[in-house]
Amino acid sequence: MTGFAARNQVAIAGHAQSPIVRRASETLGAITLRTVRAAIADAGLSVSDIDGFITSPLFPSLGTHVAEDGVAFVSSNWVSQRLGIAAEFEQNPQGQLPGSVALAVNAVHSGAARHVVVYRALHNPPGTYHANSTTRAAGREQWGMPHGHFGPIAAIAMAYNEYATRYNVPEGALGQVVAEARKNGARLPWSYWKDKPLALEDYLAAAPINDPIRMFDCDIPVDGVAAFVLTSAERARDLPNRPVYVSGYSEVLPVRRRSALHWPYDDMMDLGAACMERLCRRGGVSLAEIDLLQAYDGFAPFVYFWMELAGLCPRGEAHRMVADGGIDSDRPGASPVLLGGGALGNGRMHGTPQMLECYLQLSRRAGDRQREVSLGMACQGVPHMGGAVLYSAEAF
Questions:
Q1: Per the database record, which ranges form the Thiolase C-terminal domain (predicted)?
Q2: In three state form, how does the secondary structure of the chain look?
Q3: Are residues 123 and 20 in the same domain?
Q4: Among 297, 254, 350, 342, which residue's Cα sits nearest to residue 61?
Q5: 118-171: per-residue pLDDT in tens?
Q6: Of the residues 174, 202, 236, the one at which a domain ends
Q7: Are residue 228 and residue 335 in the same domain, yes or no?
Q8: Could you tell me the strand order of the sheet in which 244-251 lies?
Q9: Residues near 343 by Cβ (< 8 Å), separated by ≥ 6?
């Protein structure tokens, strides 16, 4: 089986990205409304044209902060009510961005909605981000939390330790990944790290958090919103911007029973490979045909994993490819997998930098960063609990 019924039948028609800041001077809800309105206008539409909203209203802190709609997160219902829209289609899935894109594609293709806004709104609460008042570890948490295995940083440290040991990765090698992300993010007007590239010596000087993960291997919590307008390919061709077509999507979930936040490297790669196979089958393409990969980088090791899953290099070779300048955006012939800065170069925007860069490049709206590309893949999330979306500049 190749392709799927909605392949290239739905397109991104417009977008908007708010400034990404450490802590905003206004509520996340206010930023979201302004960004959604800007995306709708960018697509050449009016607010009254929108009949669908999709978001993942996730408050990513593991701490015990108050989660209030419109402040700590922003649901699709909250947005539609304040825009005065009785939307035909509203969804608030708890998951990665590919799931939101998939819902939008299916809604538009089935006729459940005509114009759908997919947005992601991220909040950085005041005080300590992961401040937690818990004094007892119950349920499955009791097997890890008392020993310091708490939160995703510990989980990725375990997986990366396994990778680094197996493939003889030099200490500090991830610094080149982070420096590349920061270099590209520093060039973007909306990035938290605008005009703030990172030198390798500063990366190495930063304290480890969960060995071997250092401070700059982690994306920084921020306030920011990104929004995209999706509509049918036919309608998109009559709107102001060049359409970018959704050619396929794929998500995976763990099938092996593991303790909480136990992320073995082999689990990531086995399920990630299944994700890639499904994506290519639905898109009717091979990995070799993809000429723009934007790798998810909520933590720096994910870049290695996604590079290998996407076929840029064999298993265990991503660190050598990076060391040889293979992802350097300033090097001719390289594969700049962090061209849009990613999360490490923008802030904790949960996969929207990858989607945004694919859209900007394929719609020919990337300005002086423009590349000659026609087929892009945005990877989002942990490889064994995330997914990817395939975007095309042509409705082939």
A1: 280-372
A2: CCCCCCCCCEEEEEEEECCCECCCCCCHHHHHHHHHHHHHHHCCCCHHHCCEEEECCCCCCCCCCCCCECCCECCHHHHHHHHCCCCCEEECCCCCHHHHHHHHHHHHHHCCCCEEEEEEEECCCCCCCCCCCCCCCCHHHHHCHHHCCCCHHHHHHHHHHHHHHHCCCCCCCHHHHHHHHHHHHCCCCCCCCCCCCCCHHHHHHCCEEECCEEHHHECCCCEEEEEEEEEEHHHHCCCCCCCEEEEEEEECCCCCCCCCCCCCHHHHHHHHHHHHHHHHHHHCCCHHHCCEEECCCCECHHHHHHHHHCCCCCCCCHHHHHHCCCCCCCCCCCCCCCCCCHHHHHCCCCCHHHHHHHHHHHCCCCHHHCCCCCEEEEEECCCCCCEEEEEECCCC
A3: yes
A4: 350
A5: 999 999 988 766 666 677 777 777 777 676 666 788 889 999 999 999 999 999
A6: 236
A7: no
A8: 89-91, 52-55, 115-122, 224-232, 10-17, 244-251, 387-392, 375-380, 292-294
A9: 181, 219, 296, 297, 298, 349, 350, 351, 353
Assess if residue 180 is contained within a domain.
Answer: no
Residue 322 lies in a domain: yes
CA atoms within 13 A on the CB side of 65: 21
Q: Is residue 44 part of a domain?
A: yes
Residue at token pair 């994700």: 275
Selection from 139, 105, 129, 121 nearest residue 229 by Cα: 105
The tokens describing 216, both together, are 């700059």
Q: Does 227 share its domain with 266?
A: no
Tokens read off for 215: 């401070």
Check if the beta carbon of residue 70 is closer than 8 Å to that of residue 78. yes
Calpha distance 246→230 (Å, rounded):
9
Compare 257 and 121 and report the one with higher pLDDT.
121
How far is residue 216's CA from residue 34's CA, in Å, rounded to a whole number? 30
Mean per-residue pLDDT for 366-389? Answer: 94
- 179: tokens are 């420096």
